[in-house]
Amino acid sequence: MAKSRHRKGVMYPMELDRDDFLLASPLKPFAGSDAAHPTTRVEWPGERLRARPATAAARSAWNADRRPSADGLRTEAPERSIGPAMGGGTALDFSDETARGLPTDPAELRSWLLNHVTRTGPKSLRDPDLFLFQSASFLLGGAPVSEKVRVATYRLLASLKNVRLINATDARGRSGKAVSMRETSNGAGTVDLQLLIDPRNGTLTASQLIVVAPGQRNAVLPPGVRWYYEVIENAEWTEKPASSLLPKSLDVKADDGQRQ
Q: What is the DSSP string of 33-49?
């Protein structure tokens, strides 16, 4: 929620976002002077923070507040995770090398993921299906998995209980089909986690948490707004030289003979 700088007691919901970039190599690691060990994954944030009113009423309030920029709102950059880690839980995470060896059968993939998280985090999960749904965006947009694993992930999602097919609109205003699962807790209230999918190629285009009924942590937000969201502008394999993809400001060396 943004607090008006000119009108005492006035608050209105704003959407804040920033670009994040990730470059992963399946072959040779990158080397940086600030890294203890070379890595096959390099991530860096964009420099510009953007702000948009979250509702029509918020737009009116924002206009009346002289349309402050994201910097003018005096708020921190948005958190990246909208999965289990956002609620203090254990997030699905593993190396790029492990991602490339994941099972391509949906049932085997389910078993592998649940076994992995109970080995590295809690010994049991309150709702395994909810955890898998919350973690799907990591497999579909954050890990360099094969197309067969992506297909297996979609088939796994379709097998989960309480999954719904809906129409949804992302933070860029793009409308389309999405799969959704509802979660209720004291902290988050009731929220819908939505995964938006491009039907032309089956790629994940956005993930978002929509407030249905606010809880303790989001009590100031009205129903229907995005609490957290991620929009995927582009995710693909390329054979372009790594040096052409990394910003010059990063102190990272790349072998241009490798595939990205």
A: TT-SS-BSEEEEEEEEE
